[in-house]
Amino acid sequence: MSAASTQYGSWFHFVSELDAEIDGVESVGEQVQLWFTRHVALVPAAFGDRPVVQLEFVAAIPWVLDEPEPEWLCLKERVMH
Predict the structure, then answer these.
(1) How far apart are CA 17 and CA 7, in angstroms?
(2) Which of 54, 61, 62, 69 can bridge 40 by disulfide, Cβ–Cβ 3.0-4.6 Å?
């Protein structure tokens, strides 16, 4: 089994406003980071002119299956070396 972790990330939009001191990265344990930001991207048109916050998250998840990681997950290792 591989001891390496694979990073997964995504984002989520919701209607709200942030104070400046909240706009930043927050670690949740050793393997998860959250970022609440007013700097939004790819907001669906349904949000209209409402104030939008973007929550981005990244998690490092270890590969635990007995089978090898799929080739597409190993791509980042080839790019980084």
Answers:
(1) 28
(2) 54
State residue 4's pLDDT score.
Answer: 66
Beta strands 5-15 and 52-62, pairing class: antiparallel
Q: How far are the Cα atoms of 33, 57, 78, 81 from residue 10, in angstroms, in the given order?
A: 11, 6, 22, 24
53 within 8 A of 38, measured Cβ to Cβ: yes
Pull the structure tokens for residue 76: 């980042």
Give the pLDDT confidence score for residue 57 in this predicted structure: 92
- Neighbour count for residue 1 (Cβ, 10 Å): 11
Question: Among candidates 22, 62, 59, 61, which has minimal Cα distance to 38?
Answer: 22
User: How far lies 78's CA from each of 32, 40, 72, in Å?
Assistant: 23, 30, 10
13, 40, 56 from 48: Cα distances, Å: 12, 13, 20
